[in-house]
Amino acid sequence: MADFALDNQKLFENQNLLEIGAGTGLSSIILSNHCKTREVFVTDLPDLLPLLKENIMKNQCINIHAESLDLTNKSDYVKYEKHDFIIGADVIYDNDITDAIMDFLEHILNQKLGKTNLHFLFSIEKRYIFTVEDLDTIAPSY
Checking DSSP bridges between strand 129-131 and strand 136-138, what pairing results, if any? Predict the structure, then answer.
């Protein structure tokens, strides 16, 4: 996702972005420091916020807001309805989390009815695992 942002900087100019499941915040840091975004809201679970905030501070990002977002808690959704882009890098790896992401995106789309210029960008790494059930190497979440 960070590579995509660097290769497509003009796409993000003057845009409000929301990154879900940011982890270390690499994509949001790149977007903030190199893509002339208006504001970047970066989210993850509460346990990951200290690392996320530390990385934002160390990279001297001025337009990033780090907040907690638990996609399984639908009452959190209301805070994140005003963005032009919603991105996620490597957040689809588990069926329950994938279902929660789809519920969140559906909620956002329902709030944006009649409005244009809403973009969703997600990147995923294909993870292979060997399962005894299948007796094969598969990528079940891909």
Answer: antiparallel
